[in-house]
Design brief:
The structure is a single chain. With about 120 residues, the chain is mainly alpha-helical. The protein has a domain of about 70 residues. Helix 1 runs antiparallel to helix 2. The longest helix has about 55 residues. The protein is rod-shaped.
């Protein structure tokens, strides 16, 4: 809904600029630095409006890009902190649990010994 309102207001603004520009077709003198001459007011109004539109688009794109960069940095920082917290919890859980016996050649017992069955009794 808000997007439709924006488009409607933008369309009305463009129409107002075009109507005002074409109602003022008189030639006016223009001097900018070393550049001077007489130009139709229509051309000047439409030119200034076009330049303003382009500058507004560039500024909006710059703000969106900087906002996106800031959001990416926040997400990256949160992910890094989450990973560090998970690692810390994992290491503390490993430290709290008793060390497990690894089966190797020096610590090899038969299944009967591990469950307490006496081989000679059978």
């Amino acid at each position: 809904m808000l997007q439709k309102i924006r488009w409607s207001l933008s369309l009305i603004a463009v129409l107002v600029v075009v109507i005002v520009a074409f109602q003022n077709q008189d030639a006016v003198p223009l001097t900018i630095l070393f550049f001077s001459g007489e130009y139709p007011l229509t051309l000047l109004l439409l030119g200034c409006s076009g330049v303003s539109f382009v500058l507004g688009c560039l500024m909006t794109a710059w703000r969106i890009r900087s906002r996106h960069k800031a959001q990416s940095a926040r997400d990256s920082k949160a992910k890094t902190e989450s990973n560090a917290k998970a690692k810390k919890e994992d290491t503390s859980a490993k430290a709290a649990s008793p060390p497990s016996k690894k089966k190797g050649l020096g610590n090899n017992r038969s299944a009967e010994e591990s469950i307490g069955i006496d081989q000679e009794a059978t």
